[in-house]
Amino acid sequence: MALLEFFGCAFLAFGPPLAMFLLTIAKDPIRIIILIASAFFWLLSLLTSSLLWLVAVTLHSPIVVGVIFSVLFQELFRYFIYLLLRKAEVGLKKLTESDTAIITNKNILAYVSGLGFGIISGTFSLVNVLADATGPGTVGLHGDSNLFFLTSALTTLCFILLHTAWGVLFFHALDKKKYLALVWVVMSHLLVSLLTLMNSSQLYLATILPAYAVLVVTALWAAGAAGASFTSLKKCLTGPPMTVQVRVED
Amino acid sequence: MANILNVKIFLWLSLSVIFLATGLNADRITEKIYQRIDEGFSCFRRLNGTHQIGCSSSQSGNVGVVHFLETKLDFDWLLKVGPDAPYVVLLPPDLFRRENLMTLKNSGKIAGVVVLNQTDTTLRNPAPKPPYSNDLTCPNKITGLYKEDAFSSYCDSNPWNPAGDGLLFEDFKFPIFFINETKLNQSVLLNDCYHKFNRPIEGTPPSYPLCAIELKAFMWAAVDTPTCLRRGRLNMMFNPQPSEYCDPLGNVNIFVPVLAANKSDGPVSNRSIIFVSARMDSASIFDGLSIGADSAITGMATLVAIADMIFQFKSDIRRGDIENVFLVLFNGEAFDYIGSSRMAYDMTLGKFPKPMKEENPSQSPLIGLEHVKYWIELGSLAPQAGNTKVYLHTDPKSRSDSGVDTKVKDLISILQKNQGNLTTESIVDASIPLPPASLQSFLKKDLTIPGLFISNHKNAFANQFYNSEWDTFQTISSYKLSKHLADIARTVSASIYELATGQQMPSYIQVNETLLESTLECYLVNANCSLFNWLLNGRSNLASEMVLPTYVGVSHGDGAYKALSLRTRHLLAMISGEPLDVNKTGCINSDHNEIYHYYWLGESESNNASGTCYRSTVKTSHAVSPAFEIENYDWASGEYSSWTESRWETFSVRIFLKASSLQAVSIFVFGVVVLLLSFAVTYWVETNSVLLFPASPEAVAC
């Protein structure tokens, strides 16, 4: 029975990123490289946070301090990968032969690096939990909620999708110098991360509902930044035949 | 300089690691899920020539929902309602009896059993109501003296151990643990697990999540001893990490020739040695729980007291025909007379104490069965309330020969003459055979040995807890205990003096009651006692208040079972040894040979005692069944003990919650739906991405 729970949680947390990876990333080696590179940058931010935490623990700092600095480090390293990708653009143009979308549409780079951040941070937060979910027991002997695994998976999924949206929005903000979006990314990241601290008092809904609300706002904003609008959505829903017609007319 | 720096960095790093570890440990998920229970003793598997007995879990451990059976009435609910099988049942000690275990075993609803030993308001006295024994009603009958004669049916109608339910010899496909919660303030299993989650209320089954327990006690061996040995041999040949699957039960017999003799003095005369013996082992279903207070220790402690007296008059022994007195402690007697059958076997083959070697000048002369003049064996000796009589059992089969009969009568009359404060009763009824006794192994080889078995019972055992985990000091404790054992020791010693010299034992030779009491304390109450610490020079390494198990163990086995024979050997070395004026290095480097051994005893750093060197004749001999020595032994014959013990890796117990299957299935379905949905959505967005996300105004214009 515990094995069912394990697979349920694994599909829940990693199903959407898996679909995104297989359908949008895996077809292009360049995207895979960028995904891994950004994941590596997230790891560097984790390393920095851990070093800081090593010191902070000896100073008996509360965990809030660790969370705040960890978020700031993640955003700092998101900035670093942004700088790196903008520098690497020239080289990428030379490498890319057929697929020019990645060059013409800057949002794709942003999306790939955001997903890289998301996948690696999701993996790090959930793998230990999943390993313990294989059974035979479930959480709750000492009074913890028995929905612990489900909440962990939902929170992880939320963070993976958030990172993707944050990536797009962050890059867009820097490109277009729209600093309000930048402030939103950092502040919402801080907000959602601090909300998870409530999990230790088992206020799971109080964490998850606001986190998903933030996800919806950020995702819409990011989609808008990437050029989506109601018009384009409507076009899609009725669009494909029209597109074909247009091409025929051409 | 670089070194100092390195040390500083190392210290800082290790400090940080420690802080990190202590800070984060509490948050590990496994600790939210599981709680280990360490106070457990497990049942394990043993094999004989034809069967397997005991318990084993599956390799990954057995898991079941915890259910407490407080009284007999609770069985009904479990068997008839109990919807959440498999269960692991918690049983109070008194319900751990054959009929209940068989009901549970046959119900098919059981994944394991836990005997819960704990004191709370409902279970004031955890010990089961006597009589209680998991041994057979006729212990060791198959390898005994009366297997195929007129006396073989005696025990069937007049069982020696009427309480014996034979549970020890039953084969269980599930693990059984004995969990001791007496030292805890409250029961983890009952309060944190059963009462909180699982207790049915007015017969209504509890709702999920339920508290479950995992019992891990996987046994490598199976089927029977020959199969297991054969598989082990194959494994040793072909497996890159060779290991046996089982080991023969075995330990050492400990014996003391009172007078040192060298083979150069010439051979021993026939019928010139008096043997005094006792057994030093008992048994129980659970590993590590076999104190054997009356099953073994009363007789053994009396033998120790006798040894102390005999060594006071050892110079008088050779006044008459007697050449020597042997004091023997047998091991493994609970499992078909392992120790005694091996000694008798070695004696008939001329290998006792050691095979003769030309090149070795310091060897004892060979001792055979024909050298035995008298055999006195001490059995269970604890005084019974209202009956402190001591019974003298003899073997009617050997006494049918008039020569032997006369000698046995002499032996009885001398013992009764020296009985002092004791009351003795000799069993005169010639239809009553010997009770289970090591002497049977010797009589089986040679019916001309005049022997006597001294015990506290006439017909059925007086010991109400024979070979069980409850045969402890509490059940035999009485103010008369050491006094009574001292009286027996005096009687036996005086009889040996008279048998050897024909005279009364001088009155200055007295029982050392302090020694007797310390011995009882060390073996029954606390093995971390001052006597044992003295014998091991303060290096006893035992937890306080621990009592050493007397189960024989395996010959290649670990410390616990060897620990007892080591201490016993040193105890006898102290009693029998001559203190020498030699320092520690001299003592340890002395010429240890087959006649003398040198023991350095009594050193203590805390008491500032320097220690003394003792030269002693104490020896050990293998107590491993001859069945493992004989080539092509017929394992089904029952001639010798064929017991082996399975190997295992670990015993572990942990409790946790088990989620309802509805919850698990819901989460799984939810996960699968999310997975499929996300593929669909991603695919749709990806195929429409050009339209949905127009890359730039120019692209739209295009």
Automatic annotation (TrEMBL), chain A:
Principal subcellular localisation of the protein: membrane
Keyword rRNA-binding: no
Matching Pfam families: Aph-1 (PF06105)
Cited InterPro entries: Aph-1
GO cellular component: membrane
Domain of life where this protein originates: Eukaryota
Membrane topology: Multi-pass membrane protein
Intracellular or extracellular location(s): Membrane
Record carries keyword Membrane: yes
Protein keywords: Membrane, Notch signaling pathway, Transmembrane, Transmembrane helix
GO BP, sorted A to Z: Notch signaling pathway; protein processing
Stretches that traverse the bilayer: 6-25, 32-57, 63-85, 108-127, 147-172, 179-197, 203-225
Family, as annotated: Belongs to the APH-1 family.
PANTHER family registered for this protein in UniProt: GAMMA-SECRETASE SUBUNIT APH-1
Protein name per Swiss-Prot or TrEMBL: Gamma-secretase subunit Aph-1
From TrEMBL, chain B:
Principal subcellular localization: membrane
Protein location: Membrane
Protein's membrane topology: Single-pass type I membrane protein
InterPro entries per the UniProt record, alphabetical: Ncstrn_small, Nicastrin
Annotated Gene Ontology cellular component terms: plasma membrane
Family classification: Belongs to the nicastrin family.
Membrane spanning stretches: 664-685
Signal peptide positions (record): 1-26
UniProt keywords, alphabetically: Glycoprotein, Membrane, Notch signaling pathway, Signal, Transmembrane, Transmembrane helix
Domain Nicastrin small lobe as annotated: residue spans: 42-221
Protein's name in the database: Nicastrin
Alphabetical GO biological process terms: Notch receptor processing; Notch signaling pathway; protein processing
